[in-house]
Amino acid sequence: MLKLALTPRWLAGLLLALVFATGFMLLSRWQLGSASSHEVSADPAKEAVAPLTSVAAPLEPVLASEADTMVRTTGHYERDSSVLVSSRVKDGEHGYWVVARFVPDEQPDRAQGTFSVAVARGFTADGDPARIPAEPEGELTVIGRLVANEGPVSSEDSGDPRILGSAATAELTNTWQAPLYAAPVTADAEVPAGDRLPLDGRDHLTDAARLSAPDEGLVPIRAQQYTSDSLNWLNVFYAAEWVVFAGFALFLWWRMLADSHRRRQHPEEFFDPVPTAGEEGRIYYEQSTGRYFYYDAEAGQYYYFDDAAASTDLMR
Length: 316
What we know:
Elements: H1 2-5, H2 8-36, E1 50-51, H3 52-55, E2 69-77, E3 83-90, E4 93-104, E5 117-124, E6 140-146, E7 163-164, H4 169-176, E8 185-192, H5 233-265, E9 283-286, E10 291-296, E11 301-304, E12 309-310
Parallel strand pairs: 1-2, 3-7, 5-8
Antiparallel strand pairs: 2-4, 2-6, 3-4, 4-5, 6-8, 9-10, 10-11, 11-12
């Protein structure tokens, strides 16, 4: 069979099968890449606290490459601006975020008017709007994580304007009647202006970070970078399918080669000659080449089973 496989016809067939198999394997690799493209890893560079204006800008969306970055900004809280955002969970406890409007001192040159930041100051289990902790007074530096924006969601307590269903900046803009940056910040530290910031030599937040009013039942949110190690199993299944197709392309070539070889060695298993007068219907074996041939009465000559005419001298 090796001798048959090395003929130009079968070598060309093998080359074609390899081309198909290679294409199928590339498609399988692409599907595997798509399956793992949903994985999100933490970026150490986002843990270094940076000025808010260097990460986000007014009137521009916060991209995935910018979300979850630790930022700082100095300014003041707008009095009586705090609202509750429902459907929050902290360490297994259901509750609310306390979100307040923070007005930075530094405004971008191209900003049209004064832009504020929605700051989630902390978590509380108390859903009574009358007991929302008051905003700290005076100049503060807020350090926290710039989290991805949320879509507007109606709250179960929609009858109270101080309880919202999400921390969507679009909804908060309408609530406060003030333009906002396109994503909220979850506060990890509120430091009086001029005081030493709780940062280490790499500008990472230290354990000394505190909120201004921890005694009012406000628990720091301590938001972490979003990570995900999930796989898209549908893409994994497609990748396995392409591997099967690649193997089938090679198997098909091998099976056709094996059938052709067996047809040459045992033509009686593949042909059912009809006995007639003379030589018609008989199968002959050529010992010098190991090939079988037969006589075609209509053509008046002998043929090998691969349709190449046999020399009539073989019968002499």
